[in-house]
Design goal:
The complex is a heterodimer of chains A (127) and B (228). With 127 residues, chain A is an all-alpha fold. Chain A is built from 5 helices and no strands. Chain A is extended, with a radius of gyration of 22 Å. The longest helix of chain B has 32 residues. Chain B has 2 domains: 62 residues; 154 residues, no CATH class. With 228 residues, chain B is mostly helical. The chains are: A mainly alpha (127), B mainly alpha (228). The interface between A and B is large, with 72 and 97 residues.
């Protein structure tokens, strides 16, 4: 088979497996009545498949890599909801940005300092 | 698929703007040309003068958001690949993710209250530091507006990628673990890209922590619902 076609078919198959796990995850969550999104159930199923050795991560690497690399494309439509919030943005836009900026700074400092302190503590207390 | 010309136009324009911006950003490396900034700016620059409503834009493009489900499944790959890192450093990462999440949700809530923001805006702000596929369902659980949350997540990424670089110069962080976690918890996907530029280990830590923080927040959401 032509290598380009082979690669494309292979990629589509990997994407189909990921889609299948997502749909199966949604079905399982519905059967059990769990309030867990299908994607998260699918993630758990895939981890189980990796752990049992039924699927190797390398098998799905290209498909998974593509989806994660192009993730931005998949949430662009949600960003366009701004079209319906023009007046909200005019009245609260700057305050919202201020919340996001200050909170993001705080999260970064708190997370980094916490991880750093725990790491240093463990280094000192390890035999 | 809706065959009405305008809704086909929006789908084509969205895809073209995304691919064009990605190509430009790879060639120039200019942050303002990254798809995260340029694509929404281009789309809004056309949609606003035309008085396009979100429903009209979304008619043929909303299915793209459905792909976020399979993206979530794909997150199993980095978790599995980084399991050795996780096994060795889980206490530091777990404490960091918990502290970061509490700081994020707590400060967003307090600041939104303090600045008297609209209640639906405040609720939509709470999950803004986690990655979109998790942030949108968490916003739904909390009674916020998932689409607004996606907007706030984007701004968090844009600002966080810049702030992170500045903070690295100011904070005396000796471990790649702390530098990676800073980006992964604080600025999700945009942060992970930035962390990869800092170093290989930083990038791996950021990617792992981004996914795990999303999961942590998703499972903590029912608890949070009782609080808000």
């Amino acid at each position: 088979m032509n290598p380009v076609i082979h690669k494309t078919v292979r990629l589509l198959a990997e994407l189909a497996v990921l889609l299948g796990l997502f749909l199966l995850g949604g079905q399982l969550a519905a059967w059990f009545g769990w309030p867990i999104p299908g994607g998260v159930m699918g993630l758990a199923l895939l981890l189980v498949l990796f752990a049992t050795g039924a699927v190797k991560p390398a098998t799905l690497q290209r498909g998974a890599g593509l989806l994660m690399a192009e993730m931005l494309l998949f949430f662009i439509p949600a960003l366009m909801s701004l079209l319906d919030y023009g007046s909200l943005l005019r009245s609260e836009g700057w305050r919202i940005l201020l919340v996001i900026a200050l909170s993001t700074l705080l999260v970064m400092v708190v997370t980094a300092v916490t991880v750093e302190l725990v790491c240093r503590w463990r280094l000192r207390h390890e035999p | 698929m809706n065959l009405e010309p305008m809704s086909l136009f929006w789908l084509a324009f969205t895809l073209a703007a995304y691919l064009g911006s990605r190509w430009l950003y790879r060639r120039t490396g200019r942050y303002l040309l990254s798809p995260l900034i340029l694509v929404p700016a281009l789309l809004l620059a056309v949609a606003v003068p035309l008085h396009t409503a979100y429903a009209e834009y979304a008619r043929n493009t909303h299915w793209l958001m459905g792909v976020l489900g399979p993206v979530t499944v794909a997150f199993a790959v980095p978790i599995w690949q980084q399991r050795a890192l996780l096994a060795r450093h889980w206490p530091a990462l777990l404490v960091g993710m918990l502290a970061g999440s509490v700081a994020s949700i707590g400060s967003s809530w307090a600041l939104a209250r303090g600045l008297a923001l609209d209640p639906s805006v405040s609720l939509s702000l709470l999950p803004r530091s986690i990655t979109t596929p998790f942030a949108m369902p968490v916003a739904q659980d909390l009674g916020g507006v998932p689409e607004l949350t996606a907007v706030f997540v984007m701004f968090t990424g844009v600002l966080g990628a810049v702030f992170g670089g500045i903070l690295l110069r100011w904070l005396p962080l000796r471990t790649p673990l702390a530098r990676g976690a800073l980006f992964g918890v604080g600025a999700h996907g945009a942060g992970v890209s930035r962390a990869r530029e800092v170093g290989h280990e930083e990038g791996s830590v950021a990617g792992l922590v981004m996914v795990l923080t999303g999961l942590l927040n998703l499972f903590a959401a029912p608890l949070l619902v009782m609080l808000v």
